[in-house]
Amino acid sequence: MKFLKIYILGFLICSSQLLFAQIEFKTDVSKNKLGVNQRFKIQFSVNKQGADNFEPPAFSNFKIVGGPSSSINQSWINGKASYTQSYIYILEPKNIGEFTIPPASIEYEGEIVKSNSVKITVLKAVEIPKDPNNPEYIAQQNIHLVAEVSNLRPFVGEGIYVVYKLYVSENISVNDWRVTESPQYNGFWNQDIEVKEINVRKGKYNGEDYRYIVLKRAVLIPQRDGKLKIEPMKMDFSVGIPTGRGDFFGNMITKNINYSTSSAIRSLNVKALPEKGKPIDFTGAVGEFEFVVAANKNVLKANDAAQIKVEVSGKGNLKLFEIPKITTPAELEVYTPEHKENVSTALSGLRGSISDTYTVVPQYKGKYKIPAVSFSYFNPIDEKYKTIKAEAIVVDVIDGKELPSSSNGSVAVTPKQRVTGSDNNFRFIALNSELKPNSKSQFLDSNLFYLLLFLPFLAIPIGIIIGKKRAKRAGDVFGNKIRKADKLARKYLSEAKKQLGNQEAFYIALERALHNFLKAKLQVETSDISTERISELLNNRNVDLDTIKQFVDVLNSCNFARYTPTTNVMMEQEFEKAKEVITNIDKQL
After folding, report:
1. Residue closest to 97 by CA, chosen among 36, 28, 29
2. Which residues pair with 101 in a beta bridge?
3. Rounded distance, CA 325 to CA 581, Å?
4. Which of 35, 61, 394, 417 has the highest Cβ tally under 10 A?
């Protein structure tokens, strides 16, 4: 009996080991220690066919520059079959330090299997030898992303433009590309100019012949003086590098690699508008403008309507200043003006017109003068202020009631009327009355009387407690900032919902909501927010990696989707994702 138990136990142990050996899912890396400017390959391999639903880990501290790609290897040697399926990524570290890549997961026969975690040590940037045969070096020498700026020393309010061009030499081919990070224009009013067609042209870069395409164009108007920066655009490419060898037919054999590059940071020194000679009525108009005030008719009847149009036209920051207002006599009824903008955007800047149209309705016969109006602007070419004065407008009302005024122009006063007496001016007061006892209960000495009497004394301690709480809340500056930012997050999320269908406005509102939510929960300023900073702060607050990845994905989608075609369905999906990730982070925090 004892031997039987030992046999059964040994059988169970062997069976469990065989069962455990059925599937092996592991993580391998090409290197565990590298410089911050280097890349490495990470490979997740499973040895059983039928494994499905592969889920990669969150590469929080790394940037995916290649992949995912997959490969399958099957062999039959000496009657023994082997099978390996691999999922491969090329990663690039974002920061220096020691990081752990968590396990990946895969489903096999209804069970979730996880791979091993891997530790990566990232050191300072290392010098990469300039090997002429190194594909990375060849790509670096033959691909250039350039940001061309029309004017590096503009005035505040002066329009400039930036054009992003991709130069590629004749020696290599670019098979695929995508924008991984759009440029930021902090301190600028900006508007993109649509690039409708990607046309390959020939040009010069550093004196050499290149092919180039225009990727992006934008008009920028600086809003403050001093040093401003145009942040870089970042892109990933699939590049075909010639190997120097030919195939059977003599065609050059190329090797495809993944390559990343970015445009250089462009610094601008924005000049302030001069204080000398600045007109009193100057409201920030910068450019070259014309100014007109005109009425559609100057002669009309009382209660007829006339329209007075105030228009500024020309080239400059047309959307960023106010049009002068007109002043009308009190005898003219004036309605809220109708504002119109007919402005087009090109590389030369904003051009067109903006106008306010007033509807005026006179009440009385006569001539009414609308005083002259002036408009001032700054011309950046001449570097001088200029003022245009529109002449006064006279409205002649030829038919209608006379204005109720005296000959000297003062308003007529109605004469006093004499009061005449009559027998009915005064009436007798009744001297006899019938008094009846009051059957209602007396208020004095009643319960209600004493309750109202002592109620103020009961309210004093309650008022003191409420006052202390209000004072404490008012003194909590930090808490008030958090509550304010949280309120703004809800406001912008609501605004994003209203803008569904309006692509650019929707993604701007959605991005603001996400930023203000982080500001409320993590106590960071909006200027400090970046994808790396977000991942680090949320990770320190024990937010799970999947939720962090989902938040960063939604934030990146806001940047990308503003410049790529999208649909209402996609916008609704992004809105729901944003709601879900905010709720998840809020619960975990």
Report:
1. 36
2. 118
3. 47
4. 61
pLDDT tens for each residue of 385-422: 999 998 888 888 887 777 665 343 333 333 434 444 45
> Is pLDDT of 433 > 80?
no
Q: Could you tell me the CA-to-CA distances from 196 to 78, 103, 217, 487, 557 in Å, in that order?
A: 60, 44, 11, 39, 21
Q: pLDDT band at residue 250, thresholds of 50, 70 and 90?
A: low
With 0-12 CB in 10 A as exposed, 13-18 as middle and 19+ as buried, what is 482?
middle
142 in Cβ contact with 172 (< 8 Å):
yes
**In sequence order, what are the beta bridge partners of 42?**
29, 89
Q: Looking at residue 380, what is its pLDDT?
A: 92
CB atoms within 10 A of CB 284: 15
pLDDT higher at 285 or 589: 285
Averaged pLDDT, 545-563: 75
Measured in degrees and rounded to the nearest 5, phi and psi for residue 415 equal -70, 150
Query: Which among 369, 399, 429 is the end of a domain?
Result: 399
- Integer Cα distance of 502 and 567 in angstroms: 10
Over residues 80-94, the mean pLDDT reads 83
Range of the domain at 385: 287-399
| Exposed / middle / buried, residue 51 (Cβ in 10 Å: 0-12, 13-18, 19+) | middle
pTM of full prediction above 0.70: no
What DSSP designation does 428 have? P
Number of domains in the chain: 4
Torsion of the alpha carbons at 435, 438, 444 and 449, rounded to the nearest 10? -130
Length of the chain: 589
CA 459 to chain centre: 49
**Which of 520, 515, 521 minimizes the C-alpha distance to 559?**
515
Query: Is pLDDT above 90 for 74?
Result: no
For the sheet with 111-114, list strands across it. 52-55, 105-108, 111-114
C-alpha–C-alpha distance, residues 38 and 536, integer Å: 21
Coil, helix or strand for 534?
helix
CA distance 583 to 520: 14
Cβ neighbours of residue 113 closer than 8 Å, sequence gap 6 or more = 23, 25, 46, 51, 105, 106, 107
Q: Are residues 334 and 263 in the same domain?
A: no
Does pLDDT of 232 surpass 80? yes
- Please name the residue ranges forming H helices in 289-414: none
Q: Which two tokens stand for residue 424?
A: 């009915």
Residue 483 belongs to domain with CATH number: 1.20.120.330
Same domain, 481 and 567: yes
In Å, the largest CA–CA distance within the chain is 138
| pLDDT tens-place string over residues 513-536 | 877 777 777 766 655 566 777 777
